[in-house]
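Allow me, if you will, to draw on your knowledge of protein folds for a short while. I have a record of one protein: its chain in single-letter code and its fold written as discrete structure tokens. I remain grateful for any guidance, and I place the record below:
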Amino acid sequence: MSLEERKRNFEIAVDACNGRAGTIMSCSDQNFDIVIELARHAQAVGADYIVVHAPVLHFIHDRDDTLYNYYREICEHVDIGIAMWSHPDSGYLMSPKLCARIAELPNIIAIKYSVPRDMYLELTELAGDRILVSTASEDEWLDNIVELGWQLYLCSSPPYLLQTRNDLRMHEYTQLALAGKIDEARQVRDSLEPVRKALRETRPGGKPQAQQKYWQELLGQAGGPVRPPLLQLTEQEKQEIQSGFNHCGLKL
């Protein structure tokens, strides 16, 4: 999206929630001035939090001090809760020790940590008393509630891809787990496996965004086509996705 579209998206999200839920806005960008402009706009329109992706850092091999300074600079420009975000698309992963160091900054409240389990386990042990640690994998969510005491599933698509207005099983098993009803939570979690399988098996390798947007249309959400240079789905691919969707057991 363009900068103006992203800003407008923030405004729509705040208006749509209207105080009924918190909002977190993605301000990630390779241009640091745009990160700050988006962060300030998010704060101005009433967002509760922002999330900022660790940037691609060309030619820098000793990254830790630069990354600490990156998040420190953001903290100094806005007065809003900030979530870090680290995953392989940056070309590296922020270490648990670096994340724990950044967690000392005043605005840092959480991290989306898309890394192997041993890394997010270490970070939970190092800084779980100061920030909320989360990872993108819904497959691991229940175990992380039970084994690590996690409270937050942050900035990922399963809550709106695996659920409908009339079928809130991810929410249901989350609430059961938080209430200590682990066996019941596992039963509900496992009942979603046909939905996960349909999503996995109908996703063309080069078109994950297009598949997700079409799945959203089947759910009755706003999907629409992807923008160039991303590839559109073929009619055959749409038929395969719809067949998987129709047989996965989600209740519309």
